[in-house]
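worker-03 picked up job from queue 'complexes'. Input manifest follows; two sequence lines, order preserved.
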Amino acid sequence: MALPLPLGLVPSEAAFLCEMELVTVVPRQRLESIELLSGSTPKLRPPHRADLPLWLAILLKKQRRANIVPPAWLHPESLREIVTYETAIDVKDWAPPPPPPVRADSRGNSRRLNSADADIILSPPFLPSCTTAAPAGALPYHWFEFAEMLLAHASDDVPSASEVRSLLRDLQEARSAKMRSKITQPESHGEGVTSLRGVGAMELAESRGFVASVAEGVRKIGASAETMRREEEEEHGQDMDDDSDDDMGL
Amino acid sequence: MSYYDVDAILTDGEKIPCRFELDVPYLGHLDNSNGLKPGTRLNLPLWLAEMFALASAGEDSKPPLTLTLPPCLSEQVLAALKADPRAVPLRDQSAYFYGVAVRMLDLFDERELSAILRTTFVVRAADVGLHARKAEESGLGGQGEEFLRGLDEWERRLFRRGHEGVKGAKEWTDNVKRS
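worker-03 finished. Artifact:
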């Protein structure tokens, strides 16, 4: 028998992966570079900002050796914008994920950092989605876990933390209601495809069991009708073939 | 469906109304008589009824009995489901409502039944999901409790799985705040 583990990542695993996200810190003490499996961290020199993995940043924060600079999307203004988008502008789909990073050249154009001439094409866990370079107004993949961890361990670094907390609750509720309504629309199961663009890791881990069970139930109820339809289609297809053969004969 | 799936085994035990077409002398103990006459109506468990209904001895012989839809899929129930799926306590009809219904769909060619069941399941799933999310906040009581008591086994499993995910996320969030 297979391991009785649920399919996919459970919430605590999603949160563990989130600790790999880079965050911007303002160090208070000098710290030499540390060799990690994922590469070496930058040297910390007090007034200069540096990007560190979240787990290391939280460790340094707890030891009062650094302050964390929250990303732009965690600002109350940005969160309010997203709440408006979720509740008023698009009530069916989720707010879109952050756009891929672009860099302006000196002639007033902007180009994608990941364009074809780059040697390495980066994908989300290696893209800076929680540093100060991240754009405002869009939630990255690990938004929920990241915000929770930052609010739990470095709430004094987050501007107007209590407001951010309540906005995050609003977002969570609005988005989980969307997940429920999306998966439980009778007409949506006919097409069989549901877009989950912009859904975060924690939200996926949270609703995976439910969504999979609903889809499974609908499939089981429709299974006999489906086989019947297939058989009919096959017969029909054969009839059509016969017709075309007749036409060819004439 | 696994061989050891208890729900599948119990679904097999649900009673289905049947009508015997043949004279069966040695099955009298099923209705406490000396032998089953043609036309006898009897409730048989699904596994037995299905085997009889699909069995036929010779070339053009009839199967020993004919099946009818069980009372949990009667006209009244389906009409009520069509009107408002949420208002019907499915568990009062049968604890394995969907399980039996799916087996019946395999045996009968019932397009409309299939469509009604699908709408019912999906519409009720939305409420089940909401209750799974709010189970801890609202506590148990009031209208929610009544609805949850009316869930059949499929929906109970749906509730459990939905609640597990929400609980996992909540546990993690509480842990982060504490540490």
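worker-03 released lock.
The CA atoms of residues 1 and 30 of chain B lie 30 Å apart.
Chain B is about 55% helix and 10% strand.
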